[in-house]
Amino acid sequence: MYYPVILADMPYWAILLLILLVFGVIALGVFLVRKFAKPFRNDEKPKSDREIAEEEVQRMTQELDEEELRQSEEAKARKNGKPTEEEARQEALNRVLQPTSEEEAKAMNDYAASHADEAQKAAQAAEEASKKPTDK
Predict the structure, then answer these.
(1) Per-residue model confidence as pLDDT tens digits over 21-34
(2) Nearby residues of 18 by Cβ (< 8 Å), 6 or more positions away
(3) Staple 10 to which of 14, 107, 121, 127, CB 3.0 to 4.6 Å?
(4) Residue 27 vs residues 16, 23, 30: alpha-carbon distances, Å
(5) Which residues contact 43 (CB under 8 A, 6 or more apart)?
(6) How confident is the model at residue 136 (pLDDT cuts 50, 70, 90)?
(7) pTM reported for the whole predicted model
(8) Nearest-angstrom CA–CA distance, 15 and 18
(9) What is the DSSP string of the chain?
(10) What DSSP string runs through 51-82?
(11) Can you give the residue ranges of every domain in the chain?
């Protein structure tokens, strides 16, 4: 029995038909095993529209505690590409404190040297603000 010779003598459409037949037999076997073999059976009953609607209403009316609400708002903000409140505050502080050029840095250092008491007050105020919890 020389199978390659038999396949070589067959027309192309018969080879394609043979391949489809093999895959059809495999699919039929899988279907029958899933239908009648006990370990592979799916015994879950589909939920009715009423049950699905009741579960959705329960989920939507469930109250959130403050921590879950804050996390939810932060997740929405991140999803929209907005920074969180703390990140926005830190970015604004960095933008104020970071000079954009060497000339501005020199001017800021000169001003800080001539007004040291204001710089200390500003540093203390920033430190107190970072320690103080924010109210919503």
Answers:
(1) 999 999 999 999 88
(2) 10
(3) 14
(4) 17, 6, 5
(5) none
(6) very low
(7) 0.31
(8) 5
(9) --HHHHHHHS-HHHHHHHHHHHHHHHHHHHHHHHHH-GGG---PPPPPHHHHHHHHHHHHHPPPPHHHHHHHHHHHHHHTTPPPHHHHHHHHHHHHHS-SSHHHHHHHHHHHHHTHHHHHHHHHHHHHHHHSPPP-
(10) HHHHHHHHHHHPPPPHHHHHHHHHHHHHHTTP
(11) 3-40, 72-131
CB contact at 8 A, 119 and 113: no
Q: How many residues does the chain have?
A: 136
Q: Distance (Å, rounded) from C-alpha 32 to C-alpha 100?
A: 72
CA distance 22 to 15: 11
